[in-house]
Amino acid sequence: MSHPAVRPIREVSHGRLQEAGKLKIGKLVPTTNGRSTRPASIETFRFTTRDRAQVDKLAAMYGGTVVDAGGLFDLESEAKEINVILPPDPLGGTPIYEQWSGGGCTRRCDGEEVTVPIRTGDDVSFMDRACICAEEDDMQCKPTVRLSVIIPETSLTGVWNLRTNSWAATREMEQMVALIDMAQTRGLVAATLAIEPRKQVSGGKTKNFVVPVLRLQASLYDLAAGAGVATLGSGSMAGLTPPPAPALGTGDIDHEDPTLTPAEREQLNVAWKNADDECRKDAREFLTAEGWDPASMPRHLLQDVLDRLVVHGAELA
Length: 317
Known about the structure:
By secondary structure, this protein is of the alpha+beta class. 25% of the residues lie in helices and 33% in strands.
């Protein structure tokens, strides 16, 4: 009786984050003759999970009807973009080339070296060799991108995983993730995951397709000013990083002064959203001089900040 080889515990424990569900940008649709189905892209996000409470929250936020497929809940939403936070290592070793068959993944390759499974009886081992597609001058594998995200409005039960074979996502996603990772050195940064329709004209034929794209919700100026202005889709300035402690002894500040009420916070959010860049800069400079940031400022500074954000006499749309 054979036994699996003993592996160091650090290799076993270095796995992946628990999965809350899957994000999809396609579904199966009937073929023309109606006898079978084929995969087709969609322009809104699908969520699949075994957690009914989670998918009900998503339906309330993003629309759509939940379908129970034997304990697996499927929601084709009305949302073309959703709020996300990136966990550590969100791409999990991708982009990479892969080939799949009915028995699972048969090749995983970086274009130079490929890993292939070798079956001996019931045992499976893996062998590295030179790229087979390059040797045969035939591109048989597909580019694969796996993106893991946290959906901040749902319970933190794990990450939501999106897989795509898009060449456009392969070219673009890694660089955008790197940019967001750089921004997250100051704390978690809110982003938007969106479905972007595109078309390609080649040989006189037009091909329509969709691509998942990541976008930062905050400007570089906002990020430089602190996590408190890294906004969520709702326009909230509360951010996702605990606010830094105020600088004691800076200016004439009463540190017993309470923070903003929810109504005052909403008032500030609306003013900040409608202000132009120059007004926001003026407000930031004022708060910095007072030793505060927008996320933790006390109530007694609210009117001063609003005066700097609102251009009196201007017509607000």
